[in-house]
Amino acid sequence: MRGRVSGEQYTQFDNPDPFASPVWRSPVYRTPELVIWIVQLLRLVWRVLWFVFRHPGVDVMAGVVLLVWLNAGWQGVAVMMGATVAALATLQLAFPRWFARLVSAPAGNRWRWWCYRRRWQAVMTITRLAPLYQGRVLLPVLGRVTSSRFTDRVSVGMVSGQSPKDFADRAEGLAHGFGVRQCRVRAGRPGAVTLELVRRDALAEPMSALPIPDAADLRALPVGRREDGNLLTLRLHGTHLLIAGATGAGKGSYLWGLIRAMLPAMAAGLVRVLACDPKLMELAFGRDLFEQHGRYAADPADIAALLEDAVADMQDRAARFAGKQRDHTPTPGYPFTVVMVDEIAFLTAYQADRKLRERTLAALATLTTQGRAAGYAVVAALQDPRKEVLNIRNLFPDKIALRLDEPGQADMVLGDGARDRGALCEDISPDPQTGAGVGFIRLETDPDPVRVRAAFVSDADIRAMVAAYAVPAWRSAPIGGDPA
Ligand SMILES: Nc1ncnc2c1ncn2[C@@H]1O[C@H](COP(=O)(O)OP(=O)(O)O)[C@@H](O)[C@H]1O
Ligand SMILES: [Mg+2]
After folding, report:
1. Among 310, 300, 358, which residue's Cα sits nearest to residue 337?
2. H-type helices in 227-322, by residue range?
């Protein structure tokens, strides 16, 4: 024994030494075997009865099968089974949506519920989420499970006195315990939490560029995919968007994804893009496009002038609309204007000319504070999210954080507590195949960051976009043919 156990031995059992201090043990009661059998049998009967009482659907089904069997023998049961399978197959083929809603989704939820149920007690106990109260172990209550192809949402009733933070602190243990990739904890109504368990990474593979929509909805521009497998749409109308990420994190695919989604509205003259490209690397590719549907500037002085013109136009609009309308509706006369700035830090921090820097900053601050109602949106890409680099970062209501170098930077971009809520930006892979374009988005309306990935707009895609949409107006609306 000694060899296997380490530690100090401070009492000895079964010690014949009369001078050793006494050791007290609990008394042992011997229950007759028959009593144990009877008690266990009664318990089993009670459980069966309770199960029958709690599952009326199962009872009815069992009753029907029994009736058919009594009346028509096993052939009857076989025919009934066959008919059921045929009915389900027909439903699946004829009304796949109804099949998903009535059969496959509930069955999937049930199956996942059962997977969690099986490991529930062990995982809760070992992660120490099952406290002892008055000598009894209290387990958090497993509630509804909603399962999608990639994630499960599990609602949990907490034990009195537990907090969502207790679960968040053990998220890693929960993920490993349930055999999933990641677990995030969302606070729910009082006394409950929702565990968001990611089974499969919907974002592991790069996506090719989404098709150009027929009409652009400026409140929901499709640019990529969310972790639950649904489409990621971004809103530009009535907000400003900041995209932060280290070099090579894939900021470009968001900028180009937005432009791509707005192309129909740009062609219709309802949207203008003012592109500021101080690094001459990203937006230069679409220079013809911007020159036709907006403006393009790369030189810091030109950019400052562009932004100041935008401010003047915005203020002119604001004065014109004052008292007439509170919200802007894009028209060809007053198009929705997107000011797109790549590598904004080149203008606001690293620029040597102080005068120019201040002019640029002042214009950007004015646009972000007053532009929303006048139909102006600022979209900025940034590498280093520190306040010294961009002191107006809080003027952007919507934010996306891609791969970042340091753990603290996620909170700088997305706001306090974002990293605790699962925005692990420093863990995103630097390999472009798996990590470029992956990030976390936090919308003005929801404190919980959502993991997303932008579709990749390749150079060839951009060239095709420019070819199709940046042609003189008299050639841009051909009859029955590709505008290219
Ligand atoms: N959404 C994406 N999916 C897959 N790969 C991407 C995606 N976005 C970018 N990449 C790859 O990552 C590289 C760097 O992207 P880029 O947009 O230039 O980064 P950044 O502007 O953040 O420095 C690109 O050359 C491309 O190969
Ligand atoms: Mg870039």
Report:
1. 310
2. 251-267, 287-292, 300-321
* Ligand 1 atom nearest 342 alpha carbon: 21
Rg of the chain in Å (alpha carbons): 31
Please write the tens of the pLDDT for every residue from 463-482: 999 988 887 554 444 444 44
The finding on whether 435 has its CB within 6 A of some atom of ligand 1 is no
Domain architecture of the chain: domains with CATH? 117-200 (3.30.980.40), 221-472 (3.40.50.300)
Q: Is the C-beta atom of 436 inside 6 A of ligand 1? A: yes
**Interatomic CA distance for residues 203 and 134, integer angstroms:** 46
**Which pair of structure tokens corresponds to residue 9?**
């031995």
Ligand 2 centroid–CA 299 distance in Å is 17
Region of 375 on the Ramachandran plot (φ > 0 left; ψ -120 to 50 alpha; else beta):
left
Tell me the C-alpha distance between 174 and 409, whole Å: 26
Q: Could you read off the pLDDT of 244-273 as tens digits, one per residue? A: 999 999 999 999 999 999 999 999 999 999
Q: What's the rounded Cα separation, in Å, for the pair 304 and 163?
A: 50
**For residue 373, what is the DSSP state?**
G
Angle (nearest 5°) at CA 426 between 232 and 351:
90
**pLDDT value at position 477?**
46
Q: Does the beta carbon of 249 lie inside 6 Å of ligand 1? A: yes
For helices 459-469 and 251-267, angle between their N-to-C axes, nearest 10 degrees: 20
The percent of residues above 90 in pLDDT, for the chain, comes to 59
Please work out whether the CB of residue 430 comes within 6 Å of at least one atom of ligand 1. Answer: no
Residues β-bridged to residue 401? 244, 440
pLDDT at 278 over 70: yes
What local confidence, expressed as pLDDT, does residue 481 receive?
40
Which of 223, 456, 457, 461 has most ligand 1 atoms within 8 Å of CB, for mutation?
456
| 33, two tokens | 């075997």
Q: Which amino acid, residue 401?
A: A
Q: Which ligand is nearest to the CA of 209?
A: 1
Atom 25 of ligand 1, residue of closest alpha carbon: 248
249 C-alpha to center of ligand 1: Å? 6
- What single DSSP character describes residue 74? H
Of all atoms in ligand 1, which is nearest to the CA of residue 247? 23
Q: Confirm or reject: Cβ of 147 under 6 Å from ligand 1.
A: no
Residue 278 Cα to ligand 2 middle (Å): 11
For tokens 């497993």, what's the residue? 142
